[in-house]
Design brief:
This protein folds into three domains: 76 residues, Winged helix-like DNA-binding domain superfamily/Winged helix DNA-binding domain (Arc Repressor Mutant, subunit A, Orthogonal Bundle), CATH 1.10.10.10; 122 residues, Alpha-Beta Complex (Aspartate Aminotransferase, domain 1), CATH 3.90.1150.10; 226 residues, Type I PLP-dependent aspartate aminotransferase-like (Major domain) (Aspartate Aminotransferase, domain 2). Helix 7 packs across helix 8. It is an alpha/beta fold. It binds pyridoxal-5'-phosphate. The site of pyridoxal-5'-phosphate has 14 residues, from helix 7.
């Protein structure tokens, strides 16, 4: 098994290097958009690599949108993507920050019950979830477990569920066994366990800028300082900037979502993920890889998580079903690498265990491929809804707004004209029972003041469009108020 994954790793480094070489040729603009690109056979011959390695390298470029495959004709240089639509990269402060977003987060959370159109929540439309199949799994399992159904599932969690998760990891190219996984109460608990396992109060952690506010809330709770890392809204963490940070500060951990970021939807290209892993490994800094939206990237390109490249056990990989299946089941997991024992002890101390009924029901639901079929349908729906919402928003948001569908996931990161206060917009909309997430929620330094995050895993009904028009109108009014 180990040799198999080692060979896989060597193959992967080969095609990543090759993809990088080809990417340089493309960025030098040596070939024009629309022109035919090198064929698989010619590439394999020229570089002295196997055909599968050549195909994998070309797929990396395809996944990055640099080339397109045409059936039976080969690869062509992709038409140029219109620039100026993506939100801009904002350079974060170069010093560590104390976090104080708790009050803002609690104020926004407290409004949730009254909200009718939840653009602010990063949760999928319940009507898109396989309710019947989940209920059937619950009923089957309740009958099977009988009186045991009300019991704890002790850490590390249900063995069958961990086997199913390990199988999914293996299919995705990551060597993880059931014995490496700890089931948690959602990703929130997994993040908390990971941070507590590797940090002490007063430590500095590196986060994406902008980053998921839950990480900031945990940092505030645990007394950690936060250093924001320059992050591109399309391609994620800027690795050279992180290298500079590592040279100046001793980071206790970096928290990142390289396969699909919240709030931007950025996807780090595979070669950058490899650079990130090797930088952090060299500096012996743990990477907490929050991979909640990792299964939502729609591409044929290889999509390995950083965990697949982990050679020294320094990556704590986190997943959950909250964003893709059933947020209220509170099931997540962590693959803590060399921090396994510490995380397991903390998991016991935190809450003794999870729900036997729910963990077994999830294993049952995953058993016949139900989860993957659901994910395929879910991705399709997200694509349709995102397209409709982006098209509508382009017509109603104020001139100067920058938005484009995210590289992955269902969150839309919108940059409004600088005169807009996203906090004011959020407050005004909440009085109409519409939620949006304002930019400052995603930054310890209160940055991104004119940014909004919109949830697009929502059925684009007439009511939703009417609410979106209100968002556009209130942003336009705010833009005029200077
Ligand atoms: C990136 C990210 N990590 C973690 C979480 C928390 O997930 P869970 O509901 O599984 O605790 C969220 C929820 O929005 C998230 O977006």
């Amino acid at each position: 098994m180990y040799r198999y994954f080692k060979n896989q790793y060597i193959q992967m480094m080969l095609y990543i290097d090759l993809a990088e070489k080809l990417r340089n040729i493309l960025t030098m603009k040596a070939i024009r958009p629309g022109e035919r690109f090198i064929s698989v056979r010619a590439l394999a011959q020229r570089e002295g690599v196997s055909m599968p390695t050549a195909v994998a390298a070309l797929r990396v470029l395809e996944g990055a949108g640099l080339i397109v495959a045409r059936p039976r004709s080969g690869y062509f240089v992709a038409p140029q993507v219109p620039s100026g639509l993506a939100p801009t990269r904002i350079i974060p402060p170069a010093v560590p920050q104390d976090v104080s977003i708790e009050a803002l987060a609690l104020r926004l959370f407290s409004q949730r019950e009254a909200i009718k159109v939840p653009f602010g929540a990063a949760t999928p439309d319940a009507s898109w979830m396989p309710q019947t199949a989940l209920t059937q799994a619950l009923q089957r399992v309740a009958r099977r477990l009988s009186t045991q159904a009300i019991g704890y599932s002790y850490p590390p969690g249900d063995a069958v569920l961990r086997t199913k998760l390990a199988y999914r990891f293996a299919l995705g190219g990551t060597a993880v066994g059931p014995e490496n996984i700890i089931v948690t109460a959602g990703a929130t608990q997994a993040l908390s366990l990971a941070l507590r396992a590797v940090c002490r109060p007063g430590d500095i952690i590196g986060v994406e800028s902008p980053c998921y506010f839950g990480v900031l809330l945990l940092a505030q709770q645990l007394g950690l300082c936060v250093l924001e890392i320059l992050t591109d809204p399309v391609t994620g963490i800027d690795v050279p900037s992180l290298a500079q940070i590592c040279a100046r500060h001793r980071l206790a951990a970096v928290v990142a979502s390289p396969r699909a970021q919240n709030p931007t939807g950025a996807v780090m290209p595979l070669h950058r993920r490899a650079e990130l892993v090797s930088l952090l490994e060299g500096a012996q800094i743990p990477l907490i890889e929050d991979d909640l939206y990792g299964d939502l990237q729609e591409t044929n390109a290889p999509n390995l998580p950083c965990k697949a490249l982990d050679q020294s056990g320094l990556i704590l990989h986190i997943g959950s079903i909250s964003k893709t299946l059933a947020p209220g089941w509170r099931i997540g997991w962590i693959v803590p690498g060399r921090f396994y024992d510490r995380v397991l002890a903390l998991r016991y101390q935190d809450s003794l265990g999870g729900s036997r009924l729910l963990e077994t029901a999830l294993a049952d639901f995953m058993a016949d491929g139900g989860y993957d079929r659901h994910l395929a349908r879910f991705r399709e729906r997200i694509g349709r809804s995102m397209e409709a919402i982006v098209a509508r928003a382009r017509g109603t948001f104020p001139p100067g707004t920058r938005l484009q569908p995210p590289a992955a996931g269902y969150l839309l990161w919108v940059e409004l004209p600088v005169s807009v206060s996203a906090l004011d917009v959020a407050d005004r909309l909440s009085r109409e029972n519409i939620s949006v997430s304002p930019g400052p929620l995603f930054s310890p330094s209160g940055g991104f003041r004119q940014f909004l995050r919109l949830n697009c895993a929502i059925e684009p009904s007439a009511r939703v469009f009417a609410a979106l028009d209100r968002v556009g109108l209130i942003c336009t009014e705010s833009a005029k108020r200077l």
